[in-house]
Amino acid sequence: MLFRSLENEYIVIEVEEHGAELKSLVRKATGYEYMWKADPKFWGRTSPVLFPFVGAVKDKMFRTKGQTFSMGQHGFARDMDFKLASQTEDTLWFELDSNEETLEKYPYAFVLKIGYQLVENKVNVMWKVENPGSEVLPFSIGGHPAFNRQPGCKLLFDVDGPIKSRTITGGLAGDSYEAYPLQDKYLEVTEHLFDKDALVIEHQSVHEISLCNAAGQPYLTVTMDTPLLGIWSPAGADVPFVCIEPWYGRCDSVDFDGELS
Fold it and tell me: Under 8 Å CB-to-CB from 21, ≥6 apart: which residues?
């Protein structure tokens, strides 16, 4: 495993070339680690990038170009080795190019670039998908960062609520929604919040979520410009992390039977 690091006077990050995955974000003044440590007892990842699919495809199959292909949840980029494309004083860029292995799973040429930039006490996460071919390149892309959860953790939204989450059945999207009321824009992370899987929020213009301590004080904020997002941790008590996931795209619907396009 090869790691690359960046730091400034406020924070230091480490990114693993495998998956171009952000593995550590530490505030230097306090030594506090914000990223989940990928303990497989709960979840063995930290911040995978989801590409070329976000979520699951129905029956683990998708159809395109007159053929049917197998595909696991969240695509394959998170399980592949990227190369370091460039590094500056404040920025890292990693690259994954389509190859024989990817073309057997997903018959499209692509260049996927994942970047991290430090700006004071902020990390900008940047995605670039380039199409080196002449045909349309269909894809989804998303983040899945897991952040350490403090006791009594609450989520602070930049909307009044209620938050409406599309129902999830067997990893696929249902036709109905479930409403989660907010109290002064806060949603408490309880042991039963994720009993029905992730919260999948779409069409609500949520662009900022803060993780807060029991007193409601933010200790980490995620901003995004994506049309969808997921919020997830394993169901149950004493789970030590929560994921805030900006998405372009989501899983198939339960009744989907069309082609990838």
Answer: 15, 45, 46, 47, 48, 49, 78
pLDDT tens per residue across span 191-225: 999 999 999 999 889 999 999 999 999 999 999 99
| Residue 161 zone, left/alpha/beta (φ > 0; ψ -120 to 50; rest) | left
Whether cis (ω within 30° of 0) applies to the bond prior to 48 is: no
Rounded CA separation 207/228 (Å): 10
Work out whether strand 228-232 and strand 32-33 pair parallel, antiparallel, or are unpaired: unpaired
- Could you read off the pLDDT of 47-95 as tens digits, one per residue? 999 999 999 999 999 999 999 999 999 999 999 999 999 999 999 999 9
For residues 8 and 25, is the Cβ–Cβ distance under 8 A? no
